[in-house]
Amino acid sequence: MTKRRKLVKWLVVLGALHGVVACAGFLSPYDPTEQDRERPYAPPVRLHFRDTQRRFHIRPFLYPLRVREGSFAQFDEDTARVTPVRFFVDGSSYRLLGLVPCRLHLFGAFPARICLLGTDGYGRDQLSRILYGGQVSLAAGLLGAGTTLLFGLGIGTAAGYYGGWRDDVLMRLAELFMALPWLYLLLGLRAFLPLSVRPTQPFLLIVIVIGLVGWARPARLIRSVVLSFKERDFVRAARGFGASDGYILIRHILPETSSVLLTQAAILVPQYILAEMALSFLGLGVPEPLASWGNLLANLRQYSVLMSYWWMYLPAVAIVPFFIGYLGLASALQEWADPSRWA
Amino acid sequence: MRFLLRRLAHAVFLLFAVSILTYLFASLVPGDYFDEMRLNPQIAPQTVVALRAQYRLDRPLPLRYVRWLDSVVHGDLGYSFSYNSPVAPLLLVRARNTLVLTLTAALLAWGLALPLGVRSAEHVGGLPDALVSWMTAGLLVVPDVVLALGLLLFAARSGWFPTGGLVSIDFDSLSLARKLLDLALHIMLPVSVLVLTALPLLVRHVRSAMIGVLEAPFLQAARGHGIPRRRLLYRYALPAAANPLISLFGFSVGTLLSGSLLVEVVMSWPGLGPLLVEAILSRDLYVVIGGVLLSTLFLVIGNLIADLLLYWADPRTRVESPAK
Amino acid sequence: MNSGPVVPAINEVSFSIAPGITLALVGESGSGKTTLALCLACFERPTSGRIWFGGRDIAALKEKQLRVVRPQIQLVFQDPASSLNPRLTAHEIVTEPLLLQRNWQERQMRERGFALLERVGLSMEVASRRARELSGGQRQRLVIARALSLEPKLLILDEALSALDCSTQAQIANLLVELQTSSALTFLFITHDLAMAAHLADEIAVMNRGQIVEQGAPERLLASPQHDATRSLIAAMPRAIVRPHVFGAC
After folding, report:
1. Closest Cα in chain B to A193
2. Superfamily designation of domain C22-83+153-247
3. In chain C, at which end, N or C, are there fewer CB atoms within 10 A of the end residue's CB?
4. Cβ–Cβ contact C154 with A under 8 A
């Protein structure tokens, strides 16, 4: 497969994955904050095609879950009530892509609760939470990577183009940042910020903190690109024609950094998704009731949950396809940008 | 020699800079440990003021830093508000546990990566190579959180491994052999997570370094002399490939430390990780600073060791470079 | 025009070029030719000495004043590959100087760009191709076209033909001759190839270790060289050359 095709293939895969998460509103049956206190820690519902009278139904159905008498979070299927699964149903309202108000959901099973991946301690549907949580975690990763690259681009260009003491100072600073283990740096940065912030703000805060952790390596890479192009003859020629520094940077030098930026982006995004997951898992990231993969996994910190409710582990699995996608993209980008490298 | 001295000076400078940075940041944070107390109507404001004075939080910043630096040099890392005890001994115990975990993981990871990488490089494209490359690809896509939680889940459900802690409750009453077994069981899962997440990168680099070396003429000549395979690989080829691998080792120390933090928290291993997280949540200033500093110290020492190894392994570093 | 720059770390050099003439500066590598070219084109400043151009000493001018002078002296580098940004199209490259002058309208620029390309013998379809897709000869033509865009009086060609293959050299050389007759340009042609210089130049100056050791008309120089450096340059010429003015190095 040619390099370009490979690249396109991975882009398509990632695009599809992101698309699924973007359509969280449509694909999830419920609002992620909708609680069902009567059914805490309900296991994933089972879909049946054959009922107790051994009749075959074309449309899959489920039995609503009923709490077992005198127990907590032990459920039985109420086989008396055959509840079919319907598609393209009307449900809670949401905004498609954040813009268009909508009420259409892919599937539903009113009046029963169809929780394909179980529920958490408040009875909230895990599938919905995983999908919406994905939006938060992915956004954190993408925005964080964007922040880092912007930062790294600015600093790397300044250091490489102007040189001199500016270069020395900036590169020493970069070394400093690279000297700290990244998670310690992340926690350190996070620690130095207010611990309890309102729901909309911490997300931005976290994005910026995450973004500040990793600027050093991209900055160095960009700096070396700028350095190598600064002295090229065509840059000199342009200067001879009266070009200003700004013109030279924008027209001649920065386009050369695009391959570094793209490859770094593909490497950073999954790392930053993980960073968000780590922060939220530790209780220092996205706060409840907003869902993110990290704080969904935080439930597992309770031993009882770990022992008895295995489906709470599923958010961890959700990230794996994205990782595969980004890693594939990163290696395809590296091959495409620099064919002589062994990927 | 000059190379080593330069690296040492560099390391010291780095530690210094990090200490200033950390202290600065920590002190610029609005609010402090006593915020909660201040909000509590039952505690008189004068008490809070007195407490702050007792912990000397009311002095100007540079003065505090200098005092703190002075005490650090004398081995006193400050006082923990939550634990109500000096920070240094607290950190040291936890640091010991973290080191046990990290060093074991590092040894195992390299111990596995070297033979695997060498084997793959020997038979490039063959079955062992393909298997190894599939394994590394598979491991690369599983982030450490996922793996740690997964193994924890497995431990909880199967009951074969303990789900946390350094040792069991009845550790002291066990015989020596049992003690070792107990420790081994406890350490096995966290170490596995660290090893499995570190392995892919290490194996790939060993493999590519070895491939580069195996094609070199000097090795062909050695092979022609009839030197046995194992000796050839490990006494001739590997040292030649050592340079990039040693740099990798230096780099992997950082990732191992970060990885261990998360693994420790997830798997309740009593190391620096959980301590640091707790300290952040409770605004225990000196513990946070001490923890960050200590981890940086480990990283710097790790890199220094890598530099030392490089110095020993690669004669080119010992040659004084001509004046610029 | 007179020029008397002092090449840095090398000895005094003094020579002059009359307008409309081609002066060839010949010497082995390391004789200081390129540094001289850079000084003349105002890319470097000589440590001492003067460069007279259009009645003024341009070595003493400030940057702002130089801006007026620069368009009039253009430098064509040796390696066309490195002096062109491979990502840009030919048309973009040739109009870049005009863009930077900022006195031009969009449409005027476009037309002038095409006109310049045509002048150096590049067809219309080349205009939209990127520099990396062009051949060596095409690139060199492009570099010349770009240099001509600001209508310079003096064109300095630093080993401009050396990187090309034989037949392309001949073509470009003919282009240069034609340009000179049609535009009354002055060329300073720097090379290590005496044969080429003999073919193209009205006058040759031989440079050795930062000094001009001999100067004169090509026929005279080849027939009776006065200096060792000249003699060794003649000896380096391929045996096929017997008579000057025959471009038979290939």
Report:
1. B29
2. P-loop containing nucleotide triphosphate hydrolases (3.40.50.300)
3. C
4. no
Min Cα–Cα distance to chain B from A220, Å: 16
Helical ranges in C184-211 per DSSP H: 194-200
> Three-class SS string for chain A?
CCHHHHHHHHHHHHHHHHHHHHCHHHHCCCCCCCCCCCCCCCCCCCCEEECCCCCEEEEEEECCEEECCCCCCCEEECCCCCEECEEEEEEEEEEECCCEEEEEEEEECCCCCCCCCCECCCCCEHHHHHHHHHHHHHHHHHHHHHHHHHHHHHHHHHHHHHCHHHHHHHHHHHHHHHHCCHHHHHHHHHHCCCCCCCCHHHHHHHHHHHHHHCCHHHHHHHHHHHHHHHCCHHHHHHHHCCCCHHHHHHHHHHHHHHHHHHHHHHHHHHHHHHHHHHHHHCCCCCCCCCCCHHHHHHHHHCHHHHHHCHHHHHHHHHHHHHHHHHHHHHHHHHHHHCCCCCC
To 10 degrees, the CA torsion angle through B140, B144, B147, B151?
Answer: 140
Distance in Å, alpha carbon of A130 to nearest chain B alpha carbon = 15
- Which pair of tokens denotes residue A144? 């964080």
- CATH number belonging to the domain at B91-317, selected among 1.10.3720.10, 3.40.1280.10, 3.40.1000.70, 3.30.70.20: 1.10.3720.10
User: Which residue in A has a C-alpha nearest to residue C43's C-alpha?
Assistant: A240
Amino acid A220: pLDDT: 92
Can you give the pTM of this predicted structure?
Answer: 0.81
Q: Compute CA distances C153 → B100, C72, C117, whole Å.
A: 77, 5, 19
* B162 three-state secondary structure: coil
* Contact by Cβ (8 Å): C49, C5: yes
* CA distance readout (Å), A257 to A150, A218, A261, B6, C36: 12, 10, 6, 33, 34
CB count within 10 Å of CB A88 equals 10
On whether the CB atoms of residues A114 and A29 are closer than 8 A, the answer is yes
Q: From its phi and psi, is residue A47 left (phi > 0), alpha (psi between -120 and 50) or beta?
A: beta
In tens, the pLDDT along B238-286 reads 777 788 888 888 888 888 888 888 899 888 899 888 998 888 877 777 7
Q: What is the pLDDT of residues B112-161, one digit of tens each?
A: 998 888 888 888 878 888 888 888 888 888 888 889 888 888 888 888 88
Tell me the C-alpha to C-alpha distance, in Å, between residue A109 and each of A75, A106, A120, A213: 18, 11, 19, 45
| C175 Cα to chain A: minimum distance (Å) | 22
Could you tell me if A102 lies within 8 Å of chain B, comparing CB atoms?
A: no
As for the ipTM of the complex, it is 0.80
Which residues in chain A land under pLDDT 70? 1, 192-200, 202, 338-343
Minimum Cα–Cα distance from C86: chain A residue: A234
> Per-block average pLDDT, block size 10, for chain C (250 residues)?
43 74 80 76 76 77 77 82 87 89 84 88 86 87 89 85 80 84 84 82 81 81 81 74 47
Both tokens of C141, joined, read 């033509």
Residue of chain B minimizing CA distance to A273: B143
Do residue C41 and residue A255 have CB atoms under 8 angstroms apart? no
Name subunits touching B (3+ CB pairs < 8 A). Answer: A
pLDDT at B321 over 80: no
Query: CB contact, 8 Å: C82 with chain A?
Result: yes
Q: Left, alpha or beta for C225 (phi > 0: left; psi -120 to 50: alpha)?
A: beta
CB distance C150–A241 less than 8 Å?
Answer: yes
Domain boundaries, chain B: 2-86, 91-317
* Chain A residues within an 8 Å CB radius of C41: 240
SS3 content of chain C, % helix, strand, coil (to 5): 45, 20, 35
Pairing of the two strands A56-62 and C22-27: unpaired
